[in-house]
Amino acid sequence: MDGRGPGMYPNLEQLVPVDLGEVGATSVDSGRSCSDGRLSTLKTHGVTDLRYAGATWTPEGGSSTVIAVFTTPAGSPPLQSDWMAEFYEAGAKASTKTENIEISHPTYDQVGVVYQLNTLNDLSFQSVVVWPGDGFVHVVIVATQLEPGGVTRAQHDASVRAVVPWAAKGRAG
């Protein structure tokens, strides 16, 4: 059964940072996805139970940042980062508000080569960065709300480049 809330999987919640520098997370929670709709493309790889934890920052202005970890339970196929990349790419392509989808494989400090999806979604720049590590799949999502005469793509990209290494540090950061 799908479900999500603070403390559902405390062992996973311990893997995500609760601050970005001096800014505390707006929320930290965990959960699982088991339904076909929530699993989407992961079902084609035999995933029937996806577990995750994430920390979210939602400052005023509509922008947001999510740092998350994903895994599958014992007895399930081990989750692969390529599967999560496929999951996010399929979601972006299926959205009616997403345009200018760009896929790349940049290198980040403390992480190495990653999968990165950049897009314009409605009125925000969005980036999804996926990489494997320590038996988990790590994901960072940064959405930067566009304002008339405001944020540039370069400023959004700088935010992504700052968050990914921070996410790699985990809670110990």
Description of the molecule:
The chain has 173 residues and is α+β, with helices and mostly antiparallel strands. It has one domain (3-172): Protein Transport Mog1p, Chain A, CATH 3.40.1000. The protein is built from four helices and twelve strands. The strands form three sheets. It has an eight-stranded antiparallel β-sheet with strand order 1-4-5-6-12-11-10-7, sandwiched between helices. The radius of gyration is 16 Å and the shape is globular.
Question: What's the quick description here?
Answer:
With 173 residues, the protein is α+β, with helices and mostly antiparallel strands. The protein is 23% helix and 39% strand. An 8-stranded antiparallel β-sheet has the order 1-4-5-6-12-11-10-7, sandwiched between helices. The protein has a two-stranded antiparallel sheet with strand order 2-3. Strands 8-9 form a two-stranded antiparallel ribbon.
